[in-house]
Amino acid sequence: MERNGTAHLPGGWLYGIQGDILYQVDQNGNWTELSDTWSGTVALAAGDGMLYAVQNDALYAVDPYDGSWDEIPGHYAGTTHIAWAGGALMVIQNDLLYRTDPVTGDYTELPSSYAGTTAAAGSSRYFFVIQGDTLYRVDPVSGDYESLGGGYQGPRKWPRTTTSSTAYGRDPYGRPMWYPEAMRALVPAGTAPPPSVS
Q1: Which of 23-37, 59-73, 107-121 has the lowest mean pLDDT?
Q2: Quick one: average pLDDT of 129-151?
Q3: How many helices, marked H, and strands, marked E, lie in the chain?
Q4: For 27, which of 14, 19, 142, 167 is 20 to 30 Å away at the CA?
Q5: What is the DSSP-derived secondary structure letter of residue 194?
Q6: Environment class of residue 90 by beta-carbon count within 10 Å: exposed (0-12), middle (13-18) or buried (19+)?
Q7: Of the candidates 182, 181, 177, which has an alpha carbon nearest to the alpha carbon of residue 197?
Q8: Residue 60 burial (10 A CB sphere; 0-12, 13-18, 19+)
Q9: Whole-angstrom Cα distance, residue 109 to residue 96?
Q10: Which residues pair with 70 in a beta bridge?
């Protein structure tokens, strides 16, 4: 089953892959098709001014303005989640977590198992995962983690947050993009609440 991906870059752009199309969405919900070669994509993330996508066991760096891409060296079979956290690309592959250099593909395996992870997101300081119904905050350098509590049953993913901006609004098909109630504690102070879902 193909999973849809969303990513957000500072400046107000939201990106999503639906089917085989990469979309760029502005703050008003207007969208543009950037490229149409993304069938089979299982994860999408944004960081350091680029988008990153996992498709057919390969990891790609994607230009967020024109959709062009370059393959990142390495083997990515079994990758289920990616997120930008702490200045690096975090990759969950075959239940293990790797801090990955998005240019060279060099990686460092971090401790612990990530079996059962259903969602992942990153910020400038932390990597977050949900395993079972528990949210964990992970140090993206050491791999040290802390449980932030349970009760996180719901969507398999949520829009990525940064310290300066938050992705709210609607995807290219008009569906609401929102944070599950339990995730709202991660929304930066001073941001608007998510739209009502009707």
Answers
A1: 23-37
A2: 93
A3: 0, 18
A4: 19
A5: P
A6: buried
A7: 177
A8: buried
A9: 7
A10: 61
Beta strands, E only, 56-198: 58-62, 69-72, 79-85, 88-93, 96-100, 107-110, 117-122, 127-131, 134-138, 145-147, 169-170, 176-177
CATH topology of domain 5-186: Neuraminidase (2.120.10)
| Residue carrying structure tokens 């979309």 | 23
Give SS3 for 8.
strand
| Residue 194: both structure tokens together | 């998510």
Q: What's the pLDDT tens digit per position in 77-136?
A: 999 999 999 999 999 999 999 999 999 999 999 999 999 999 999 998 999 999 988 999
Q: Which two tokens stand for residue 36?
A: 């149409």
The residue type of 99 is: R
Q: How far apart are CA 72 and CA 101, in angstroms?
A: 9
pLDDT computed for residue 28 by the predictor: 83
The ranges assigned to domains in the chain are 5-186
* Cβ proximity of 117 and 156 under 8 Å: no
Please name the residue that has the structure tokens 């207007």: 30
Residue 171, pLDDT score: 40
Residue 32 structure tokens:
């543009």
